[in-house]
Amino acid sequence: MTRASAAPRTRRIVLISTGGTIASRWQGTGYAAAASGDDVLAGAALPEDVTVDVVDLFRVNSSRMTTRHQLELLRTVHETLADPDVAGIVVTHGTDTLEETALLLDLHHHDPRPVVLTGAQLPFDSADGDGPGNLCDALRVAASVRDLGVLVVFDGLVHAARGTVKVRTLAADAFADPSGDPLGKVGFGGVAVRRRPVRPAPLALPAAARTASGTALPADTDGAAAAALPRVDVLTHHSDGDPVLLRAALAAGARGLVLVGTGAGNATPEIVDAVAAAVAAGVPVAVTTRVPAGPVAAVYTGGGAVDLAAAGAHLTGTLRAGQARIVLLAALLAEPSDAERRAALATRLLMAPEDPAAAATPPAAATTPAPAADAAPALDAAPAAGTVIVADPALATRREHDLLGDRDVPADAYWGIHTLRATENFPITGIPISAYPHLIEALAAVKESAAVANERHGLLPEPKAGAIVAACREIRAGALHEEFVVDVVQGGAGTSTNMNANEVVANRALELLGHAKGEYAHLHPNEDVNLSQSTNDVYPTALRVATISAARGLVEAMAVLEGAFATKAAEFSDVVKMGRTQLQDAVPMTLGQEFSTYAVMLEEDRTRLAEAVALLHEINLGATAIGTGLNAPAGYAETARGALAEITGLPLATAANLVEATQDCGAFVQLSGVLKRIAVKLSKTCNDLRLLSSGPRAGLGEINLPPVQAGSSIMPGKVNPVIPEVVNQVAFEVIGNDMTVTMAAEGGQLQLNAFEPVILHALSRSISSLRAACLTLAERCVTGITANVDVLRAGVENSIGLATALNPHIGYTAATALAQEALRGNRGVAELVLERGLLPADRLAELLHPDHLTGGTARSAN
Asked: H-type helices in 581-721, by residue range?
């Protein structure tokens, strides 16, 4: 199944379903994984600009996720990423062994595109389950981040695969790294990533995964089939422990052992002797601890970690038992030629702090191709490009300078010191500008057009211009969006956003020129990327281009909803009902006429929206600081405009008066007013739908809205109009956003409006929310509406409003008397007309025919 948004550009995510609680249904005595990936996806909201392909790989409970299942998943992930059109992968998985699977995938993951694991603590058929929200967050992360490896997304947080374990059996916040912080969080429609994970260079796909076959592995795979894979056992030490279980595991064929010690990784002298014997026999032994957080450390002797390390055991740092077992398994599956090389590989994968190789820094370039599937593990090769493998991420920094002094910036960050200060100064919404991909792409387009213009005017050498253009094109294609980290609401008229863009473009361009990030002597964010520009013309221009692009999605969504209402209008064209004014019976009409008005209102508003968007095509690029074009060469504005028009495909025009254009936000006010108009009319439509469907017995009950969820935690059988209700709330938000835009536009002083960041935020939220509301209302409500024809017919026949239709033929006085008597006696108007002989029966039937009552637009309602 594929579910797609109506946006012109989408990111394709592959969802691999493996079972677990997120797919579990009640089986009479307990829960078991039974729901398909399509079923799981159907319950989740789809992020904007994302399409999802579903692969049903397994339906197994997490406790039955064997090594063979994990290797089959590993192979499937690699095969999926062989398709360059795939933007990322989401794996739905049971929570009990998710930490092991995540690390196995991460140890073999060499692609910049993410693999995101998620699941649920509440079963699939729970009324308030956490699965849909987790899946939506995972899809959003998979579509937006790069170069972070395999991730775990759960309860709104983004975790690195390494070190993340299940810390709660039933609570929603199931996962954490007890020894570290999350990488980031998901919220307000965006993904905020604060750091990169610590990862070793990835392994090649093991032969056991390359030869795995059969995607329908039975849940009880064991015996001879499992015996072909290396056995790694986990043993827990206690104060009365002895080597009996360790030796029994070896006798059973264990090729690797994980010893869960006490404290910082301690046992007894007898167990130390047994470990030494195992290591001498070529069996790697990893030592972890039963303590939830903190590293395993060589502190104690007398059977402690000092002696265990001397006996040849691997200390696992902050990895706990499940993931330590996966490391040994991966080392064994890689099949090094001898025990010594196998031990070296295990040490590197465990990244124990005492391992000197773990402190190596990665090369600057981030374009190393993925290793071949059949490549042997290179134990002494340089780490994969872009991989951070320092023991302490805080040590991986570079020093940058600005007018306030020096600061250390993360070495692998594409942003720099100006962005760093902005993130510290503006912790306002928690929403980074990367939450608005249209803005990032527009900024990149503006920077690209400026580089083209600067080269054409002889200001920028071709190598620099070419590198800037190439970096901008990568960003417009979706790369590095996670590097745009400043808060969307900020002081400085958007300066922080412009600086963030300058630094990301500059550092990527430096890499393309063969230099390291931060080597600004070769290409500078301000002197080269920002050449002939100011925030005051870059930001407004990018805001306009971004808003035009975003508005296309809203226009298309409105067309979808308009079509849904038009379809219902045709379907209900012969269903007669009573029209109402001031909630009182008026005159008959058809249900089709009622629904056609909703379609017409949307059509009118789409036209108004197009008119408002047209005003945004006038830009001030080339105005620089206040509109005088200071520091830009003659003709630059027109050259940059032409380049931007070619890049975006938009009919852009340079404002006739750049001083006026730099300070005037009238076009944004106009657009916001149209968005408010759309919201008001959409909300009125939803009010109508809720009234018409009210009941179902004690209200109007003229139409039925499709039931989409249980309506009450206490009232059985109750179904609420939740889709119209959520659209109402979107409308309230948009109306409030319009006031924000109004005040921000009014608040500007003299030659600049400093409040365009909040205008961007308000407009983007309004457009995005309205787009989602239109699609949701069409898909989840309007297309499933049905008419209660009998209720509608009875309403017409019993309504005193029929007296109005007879008024020209029997007179106002007689019609009024009829209406009053019908109301007092609870009788029909037609019945009284015949009883009093006011009209012949055939003439009455002619006057009360649906075509006559509705202006000739209705057919018989029978």
From this structure: 591-614, 636-648, 658-663, 666-692
- List of residues 6+ apart from 360 with CB closer than 8 A: 382, 383, 389, 390
What's the CA gap between 780 and 783, in Å, rounded? Answer: 7
Q: Which of 779, 765, 775, 769 is closest to 737 using CA atoms?
A: 765
* 237-269 pLDDT, tens digit each: 998 889 999 999 999 999 999 999 999 999 999
CA distance 296 to 258: 13
CA distance 360 to 363: 10
For the whole model, what pTM was predicted?
0.56
Residue 862: count of CB within 10 angstroms of its CB: 8
The closest of 433, 450, 435, 483 to 647, measured between CA atoms, is: 450
Distance CA 464, CA 462 (A): 6
Q: Which tokens in the block code for residue 433?
A: 């500008």
Phi, psi of 141 (to 5 degrees): -65, -45
| Antiparallel, parallel or unpaired: β 115-118 and 86-92 | parallel
Q: Supply 812's token pair.
A: 């106002």
The strand pairing partners of 282, in sequence order, are none
Is the dihedral angle over the CA atoms 290, 291, 292, 295 positive or is it negative?
A: negative
Q: Give the span between the Cα atoms of 585 and 840, in whole angstroms.
A: 25
Q: Which residues are catalytic?
A: 712
Dihedral of alpha carbons 554, 555, 560, 562, sign = positive
Rounded-to-integer distance, Cα 139 and Cα 130, Å: 15
DSSP one-letter string for 685-716: HHHHHHHHT--SSSS---EEPPP-S---SSST
| Per-residue pLDDT reduced to its tens digit, 699-709 | 899 999 999 88
